[in-house]
Write a structure and sequence with these properties.
By secondary structure, this protein is of the alpha/beta class. It contains eight helices and seven strands. The protein has a seven-stranded parallel sheet, with helices on both faces. Strand 1, helix 1 (20-31) and strand 2 form a beta-alpha-beta unit. Helix 1 (20-31) crosses helix 8 and helix 3 runs parallel beside helix 4 (100-121). The longest helix has 22 residues, at 100-121. The termini are far apart.
């Protein structure tokens, strides 16, 4: 039996689409028949990503710049079906070294930017379409240096549940990821990356590291499944069970 494309004729915006989970989700959405618009900060990286996946368009801007975000939505031609935001990395620092300006920027990116996107979604995302935000599992196990990241990840399920009510029938969901083998993970871990990979392969129930393609498969499923809204889905290879 031939597989019918799940997103045929739809338009997907990927914020943070030049690499990692964003790029893989764009690739998967294209395979499922969608047209894709990629955004990110670096215009050249976006052009390279667009060439890889056959994106319809690219727009370079900083999603934490509210004026630039306003301009992006104002410039959209026609409605979109889904918006997936994976931009912005976590901020880790022990309390003694915590820089409040950086903490505020991180919390703005992970919590207030989704609210701004929610405001813009009304009138730009078709009814029954979806917003999808990336989060993490950092709040599940307290650890030194993770307080800012924990605040963001703990708040996200409440944010998406309330936003789903506010802007229905547009759907709103989140993905909470553990370690995913992305360029961002490589930058954060540096020389410790290979040791972390080996540790996860040895301890995770799935026996391997979670890859961007795993997240992309879940992201596209949540776009296509019109019964799902207000929910946060974990993808960590079973890390919380060990």
């Amino acid at each position: 039996m031939t597989h019918a494309p799940e997103l045929a004729g739809q338009t997907v915006v990927v914020i943070g689409g030049s690499s990692g989970m964003g790029l893989e989700t764009a690739r998967r959405a294209r395979e499922e028949g969608a047209e894709v618009i990629l955004t990110g900060r670096n215009a050249e990286h976006l052009r390279q990503a667009a060439a890889q996946v056959g994106a319809r368009d690219t727009v370079a801007f900083d999603v934490t710049d509210s004026a630039a975000l306003d301009q992006f939505f104002a410039g959209l031609t026609g409605p979109i079906d889904h918006l997936y935001m994976t931009a912005g990395g976590p901020y880790y620092a022990p309390l003694a070294d915590l820089e409040f300006d950086r903490a505020l920027r991180a919390l703005d990116a992970h919590l207030l930017v989704p609210l701004r996107i929610g405001q813009h979604a009304v009138g730009h995302v078709r009814p029954g379409g979806s917003l999808l935000f990336m989060s993490g599992t950092g709040a599940r196990r307290p650890a030194k240096g993770q307080v800012t990241a924990a605040i963001g990840t703990a708040a996200m399920p409440a944010l998406v549940a309330n936003l789903a009510l506010e802007i229905a029938p547009i759907r709103v969901n989140a993905i909470a990821a553990g370690f995913v083998d992305t360029p961002l993970s490589a930058r954060l871990l540096g020389a410790d990356l290979d040791a972390r990979r080996a540790e996860l392969r040895a301890t995770l129930p799935i026996g391997r590291v979670v890859e961007p393609a795993d997240v992309a498969a879940l992201a596209v499923h949540l776009m296509a499944n019109t019964a799902v809204t207000g929910a946060t889905y974990d993808i960590d290879g079973g890390e919380q069970t060990v």
